[in-house]
Amino acid sequence: MKYMAKNDKQSSLNETDLYQDTVWLLGENATAIIHELRAPLSGIYAHLQLMQKNLERQGYCQEADRFALLYEEVSKISDLCNNIMGLASGKIGELRLVDISEICYDTVALLKAAAVSEQIQLELNIEQNAPYVLADETQIRRVLVNLITNAIQALTNTTDNGLIQLTLYTKENNIWVIIKDNGPGIAACDLPHVFDRHFTTKAHGTGLGLPMCKDIAEMHNGALLVKSGDGLGASFILRLPIIA
Question: Quick one: which of 184, 168, 186 has its CA closest to 176?
Answer without folding.
Answer: 168
